[in-house]
Amino acid sequence: MKASGTGPDMHLDQDRRSVLSWLLGGGIAASLGSFFYPVIRFMNPPHVSEVAVDEVSGGKLNDLKANSGKIVKFGNKPALLVRVSENEWKAFSAVCTHLNCTVQYQDSTRLIWCACHNGMYDLTGRVVSGPPPKPLEEFAVRVRGDEVIISRRA
Ligand code: FES
């Protein structure tokens, strides 16, 4: 009988162990990588530049009736377009200056309302009540043909 751990069998055992160790180590490394990669990506997201937009279409003239409003995309932020009367339009950033909720037009009060903490703005963008610390940014509105155009004020 041959003693274990000697001769060519010993080299074969060592080769098997090193292959198994290599496979086990690779599996552990792959598992750790698959766990930590999404965590690292979440903690360090890729830089996405803000879309610079100075002008957007607010839709067709007859899309909104007098004393109503709607939210439109202004770049990657919402804007509030209000048709105050037949010939008067207003537009504001729809991002509340308190904690960034989206505001909406309230036809019953003719005010801009933030549902998050009951903040109220008038149709110049000034704070009427509630916690918002600053007025809403106002945009310019003009009608071009049958289209309503919203743009940043110069
Ligand atoms: S987020 Fe608008 S009132 Fe608080």
- State the fourth-level CATH superfamily of the largest domain: Rieske [2Fe-2S] iron-sulphur domain
Identify the bound ligands.
FE2/S2 (inorganic) cluster
Question: How many structural units, i.e. domains?
Answer: 2
Q: Helicity, in percent?
A: 10-25%
Radius of gyration from CA coordinates: 31 Å
CATH architecture of the largest domain: 3-layer Sandwich
Q: H/E element string?
A: HEEEEEEEEEE
Query: Are there runs of 5+ residues with pLDDT below 50, and where?
Result: none
- How many strands, what sense, and barrel or not for the largest sheet? 6 strands, antiparallel
- How many helices in DSSP terms? 1
Please sum up the structure shown.
The chain has 154 residues and is α+β, with helices and mostly antiparallel strands.
List keywords for this structure.
154 residues; alpha+beta; Rieske Iron-sulfur Protein; 2 domains; 10 strands; binds FE2/S2 (inorganic) cluster
Can you give a write-up of this model?
The protein has 154 residues and is α+β, with helices and mostly antiparallel strands. It folds into two domains: 1-46; 55-151, Rieske Iron-sulfur Protein (3-layer Sandwich). Helices cover 24% and strands 34% of the residues. It contains one helix and ten strands, in the order H-E-E-E-E-E-E-E-E-E-E. It has one helix at 7-43; strands spanning 55-60, 68-74, 77-85, 88-93, 104-106, 111-114, 119-121, 127-129, 138-144, 147-151. The strands form two sheets. Strands 1-10-9-4-3-2 form a six-stranded antiparallel beta sheet, with no helix packed on it. Strands 5-6-7-8 form a four-stranded antiparallel beta sheet, with no helix packed on it. Strand 2 (68-74) and strand 3 form a beta hairpin. The longest helix has 37 residues, at 7-43. It is elongated, with a radius of gyration of 31 Å. The chain starts with 6 loop residues before the first helix and ends with a strand. The mean pLDDT is 88. It binds FE2/S2 (inorganic) cluster. Residues 96, 98-99, 101, 114, 116-117, 119, 130-132 line the site of FE2/S2 (inorganic) cluster.
